[in-house]
Amino acid sequence: MDFANLAAQLNAGTIVPEGIVIVTLLSVLVGDLIAGRAASRWTPYLAIAGLLSATAALYFQWEISDPISFLGGFNGDALSVVFRGIIALSAAVTILMSIRYVEQSGTSLAEFITILLTATVGGMFLSGADELVMVFVSLETLSIASYLLTGYMKRDPRSNEAALKYLLIGASSSAIFLYGVSLLYGLSGGETRLTEIAAHIVTDPTGQSIGLVIALVFAIAGIAFKIAAVPFHQWTPDVYEGSPTPVVAFLSVGSKAAGFALAIRLLVTAFPMLTHEWKFVFTALAILSMVLGNVVALAQTSMKRMLAYSSIGQAGFVMIGLVSGTDAGYASMVFYLLVYLFMNLGAFTCVILFSLRTGTDQISEYSGLYQKDPLLTLGLSVCLLSLGGIPPLAGFFGKLYLFWAGWRAGAYGLVLAGLVTTVISIYYYIRVVRMMVVKEPQEMSDVVKNYPAITWNLPGMRPLQVGLVLSLVATSLAGILSNPLFTLANDSVTHSQILQSAISNTPGSTQGVTGYIKPVLSSQVPVAKTNTGL
């Protein structure tokens, strides 16, 4: 094979966004080695610029003619473009909220950013990985960097404890997942590409063997750990409470988005003969996650633990789209992750700001906050109400699309469970909002009574303010102007060959989502004309 043919098969242009992030990572690392502590003044902004540049590069890869690269190891299709963009943007916002938090802890900011960018690279590669070795290497890159971030506050015993729990449970889940994919490798006769694995298993008369079922169970266990689905959620509350808050924000959005990208690509591509089986399992996981996550969140007294159980419930909502298995289901799933990026990171930005000013994250201490900090109260209220699904915020339209897609796909019990648990979640979200806006002076908490004077001139506070305002505006506008985002989500599904092949082989699947966008939005979404029955 000559060099020209090798270069054509590598097709390295598909990973230009990841290359930009890697160059940014190295620049931050070398800059910190040369400039020392003084580098903290410019390395965060260099990292943000690199992540935004990577996002811009993803825009130009939207309709790339040949998305397959590295001899079939990576697929840069439209679906991966959206997930990689979500991960890159979540890392950029996380850096904005990290600057003041990390500097106040007395640890190195550049090292924190370097590890965060490493996790980002792992998540972006995982979103497009189409081969078992690349899947596992990308997953471990994301996981190991996440373990390091969790224990980054070395002087904090809670951070050390959270990192140890995350490491032990995460290593076990990685071993279980690796065993599952090794079974896939053996059953396919030594193939590592997902499409070739599926082709060999389908043509093999023993393809319905118990080995394939075991491989599916073990793979689902690894994926469920990454997306924090019940009963693989045990690490989430303790890790969320003990970890640095910016790390929790990234894990709840970036890491979770990578996990769902892996779930779509692995289950749809490698297990075409067990579609009903894995949908049944994810139906059970979704119901358990929605019920346990939202019910247990009612009893929490810490904001970080409440948001931890909330994220478990949110994962259950997103799984409705995965179980639906239709164009509408996958598009609704992508749309919800897009808006979840803004509203969840906005909520964590407010939690960081409050903890920096008061030193606590107890829900009871937020009482009367409106009288001392209106901007923080407004931002946290909008983000929490959006997470609860209150119209006209982004979360309402995200849940509406998910529930309607599930209903059209026949997942009636799943949708009803989602509706009931959504009502439960609204209670504990509104409880925090009501507490913040009380007007009676005697109801104000002691922490709020001693609230420090608001100033944005301290080092690292201005980026935190920018992150708060951006999240607030995006959460509000993403609900009012949700049509462009849903068009993006729908196009990412219709332009992805693996999803279209899977959907065309699913009996009773529906193409396009125009039928249920019209009742909500007056504008049209450009999708294929199909008979939706509405």
UniProtKB/TrEMBL annotation:
Gene: ndhB
Organism: Trichocoleus desertorum GB2-A4
Boundaries of every NAD(P)H-quinone oxidoreductase subunit 2 N-terminal domain copy: 12-99
EC number of this enzyme: 7.1.1.-
Catalytic activity: a plastoquinone + NADPH + (n+1) H(+)(in) = a plastoquinol + NADP(+) + n H(+)(out); a plastoquinone + NADH + (n+1) H(+)(in) = a plastoquinol + NAD(+) + n H(+)(out)
InterPro entries per UniProt: NADH-Q_OxRdtase_suN/2, ND/Mrp_TM, Ndh2_N
Domain NADH:quinone oxidoreductase/Mrp antiporter transmembrane: 129-425
Segments passing through the bilayer: 15-35, 42-62, 82-102, 109-126, 132-152, 164-187, 207-227, 247-268, 280-299, 306-324, 330-354, 375-397, 409-430, 466-486
Subunit structure: NDH-1 can be composed of about 15 different subunits; different subcomplexes with different compositions have been identified which probably have different functions.
Stated name of the protein: NAD(P)H-quinone oxidoreductase subunit 2
Cellular location(s): Cellular thylakoid membrane; Endomembrane system; Membrane
Keyword terms, alphabetized: Membrane, NAD, NADP, Plastoquinone, Quinone, Thylakoid, Translocase, Transmembrane, Transmembrane helix, Transport
UniProt similarity note: Belongs to the complex I subunit 2 family.
A Pfam match: Ndh2_N
